[in-house]
Amino acid sequence: MTVRGDFKEPARPRPDLVIGREELFAGAREQLSGGGSVLVHGPAGIGKSTILRALAAECAESARTVLRCSATESESHLPFLALADLLGLVVDEVSDRLPAPQRTALESALTGRGESILQRDGLALRLAVLSVFRALAAQGPVLIVADDLQWLDPASAELLGFAARRLGGMPVRMLCAVRTDTEPQGQQHDLHLRASPPDTLAVRVNPLSRTQVAALLHHRGCTGLPRSTVRDIHRTSGGNPLFALELGRALAESATPPSPGEPLPVPTSLRALVLNRLEMLSAEARRTLLVASAGARPTLALLHAAGRVNAEAETASAAALGLLATERETPGIRFAHPLVSAALYAEASAQERRAAHAALSTAASDPIERARHLALATTGTDPRVAARLGEAAAAARDRGAPSVAAGLGLLAARHTPLDTVPGPDERRLVAAEDALTAGETDLARDIARQVLARATEPADRVRAWMVVIDAAGQAMAEIDAVFPHALADAGDDPRLLALVRYQLAWRALLMDGEMAKAREEAACAAGLAARAGDRPTELLALGFQAQMETLMGHPDAPATIQRAMREPQDPRVACDHNGAGAARFRWLIMGDQLAEARTTITALLHEVQRRGMVESEVHFLRGLAETELRSGHCGRALDLARESLRLARDTGIGEAATAMFTSLAEAAGGDVDRALALAREAVDRAEEDGDLIYLSRALGALGHAQLVAGDAAAAVQSLRRVRELEEGLGVVDPARGRWHGDLAEALVRIGEPSEAQDVIDVTREQALRLERESVLAVLDRAEALVRAARGEQGAAERQLTSAQDRLGKLGYGLEEARAAYALAGLRTLPQALGFARAGGTSMPGPTAYDEATRLFRRCRALPWLRQVESASTVHPASPPLASAALDTLAATERQVAALVMEGATNREIAARLFISVKTVEATLTRVYRKLGIRSRVDIVRLAAERRTG
């Protein structure tokens, strides 16, 4: 069909709703906007048609004529059908321009009166199609949109390819989609690429990530699915959006979710994709494939051990049908797509599945796998099976696979009789704690709720309440009603009370914003745990107490850290993100001991990764990124921060805090707009959760990003809120957020040097008491800007030089570079104004920025490098104003006037001087009034008179 460019099409898909394809869209959009063509390819269901429609909706607006065709397999035998779809409605308006032989051949093809026309008069028909495209292009841009090229009838495909290869120089673009294999070596798109214009960009549509699948399911209404279920959907679908949506809908329609070890319900629509090929296999071959689908890592050797004596021949026949893709370099057997395995398993009867698991329970070499298969082959309770599963869960836990341990623990609970020790609820609680370790908070919370619904033992109930609280993370407001129940269940038992008091310490911090109260609750929890002989809880409480004392600037912090580091230690608590190791890391990095902090956090990160402790991994990735950022390794910090953010988004753990820190990393070494977006996200999440602690950090990140972006007024607004929040929270140590220098600098930029000096004076008092050397150096850098604003040029330069030297010696590479940048700005401005202050060291502008450029480049601080490049292009070559006029102007007014002489716009002046455009406008108004002039032109005239005089 044909659509003219001046018609509006209904229900156009929006590109922002095509999940996870941002980079693909950007590349395709750039190619099409430059007049090129695009071929989108990938396997069935991957989203090619959705992408094609979204791109076509955008490109159609710039085309006079849009030609469309969408082929189907059932119609692919009809000759010239696609050609009729493309040209049927437009051929009449250009047919009179075709030579008679071409017109006759084209009419015969389009009307179906000459099926053999391509063989009988092929050249005339080929030229006719090309002539039509040329005639349409002469009237305006043409867009050809063709979906499912693999089903194009051969005649239309040949004609379209002939014309496409000869469209050079014409305003004709092709946007096509074709199905290709999932195998990397599948190159069917090459055939279609050769039939496309020479400049065609081939774009492969790849599977979605787990996070993108989660976003897709949520967007399409499949909400409320646990993250563990989304993980299973992603694995089963292979990241294919169509398959994922079908699986999600089947789960939404299912009355009960699958139990651990059971497959996802595979809807009939997806089973049909593979079952027709399965019917071509023998019954024995299907049983062999069922055993392979039940195994974790199937091999021919495993199949033989499971009693499948003809495994080679049976898997070979399955591979020939496209059901299996045997590995070339390993003995493993791999299904062509995870959905094949899932559909095969879902189609089997319960008895067939149990038989497969029974065979694997003796064939598998791994004891964990043997125990799992034994459980899935057994019905009802069986203490022997439960004990085997408990041992397997412990082994999985030791291997650093807590997610596997959680699944095995739930299977153990299912097979545990009520009158045994440990009982079913005890096993469920262990499984819930394993799920927490693995970052599967939804699963952990669901298990705990199941236990609370029937448990009567206080120890079991308190333990379940602790899982519910831990699963809530920072959003404690959502479960605030839990605490009275937990206290009631704990009674007077010091061991149980210690657990609850430890959580109350977190509540006091996150919900009430009272660090002193949080410290008291943690100390109380530590004392109760010590009385009860519960060393793990005592260590966690001491670690928390130490962190509070560090942030408060409390003198007992070092002693509390030492108490938390004493033996005996619990191996798991020792590397927990709330343990003594984490508290010591925070103490080191706040005390400028960057090298030791890096060693400490690296060791902690390696240990939690080995143990599979996902929440701690998110925290420690962030901590290592912070260490690298402080050291001026911005590229490395950005990589680590982005990795941490991906993990946080994937698990739903610490998203606000990780977005906050990633914003800082983006502002230092990445993209400032991205930094602003992440900081705003963190602020919104913290406010939604009622988390005052991370709200102050998020606002600090937002203020920093706004400062880097050149919006000093907004930065001041954000950072003033941080100051108010931290005063209320009782945060004393300025090394916690390190926002004070940014606030002072932003205040100078908006013309508030007195308030900036007040911030510096108050902060310096605390930094001196706590011996925070890097904070003191940053404050000196900010104070130098205050002095420069007051006209104390020489003193400002000396203070900046000293600050830069101290920051370099402490190892703060980015802060050192920022000091060099500020110094370059000060040294450039006097020459721009035509004078140098006493004690100043004026030098030519371009060379003044060389040191800052070198330091920022060493740090890979890309946003700051862009600022330097912008500043160094402003050359102070304009003539000075008359000395009498200069005497009447303040320092900022002189700077603005000098830049006006150079021809800078108000926006350019604002960026150059790090002030707002409104401040530039107000400053110019004062300049005009003091000099008795009316416009920018008069400033230039005064300078010219001075030069000629």
TrEMBL record:
Source taxonomy: Bacteria, Bacillati, Actinomycetota, Actinomycetes, Kitasatosporales
InterPro entries reported for this sequence: AAA+_ATPase, AAA_16, P-loop_NTPase, Sig_transdc_resp-reg_C-effctor, TPR-like_helical_dom_sf, Tscrpt_reg_LuxR_C, WH-like_DNA-bd_sf
GO molecular function (one): DNA binding
UniProt keyword Oxidoreductase present: no
Organism: Streptomyces albiflavescens
Keywords, in A-Z order: ATP-binding, Nucleotide-binding
Keyword Nucleotide-binding: yes
One Pfam family hit: GerE
Domain HTH luxR-type: 882-947
CDD domains noted in UniProt: LuxR_C_like
Protein name, per record: Transcriptional regulator
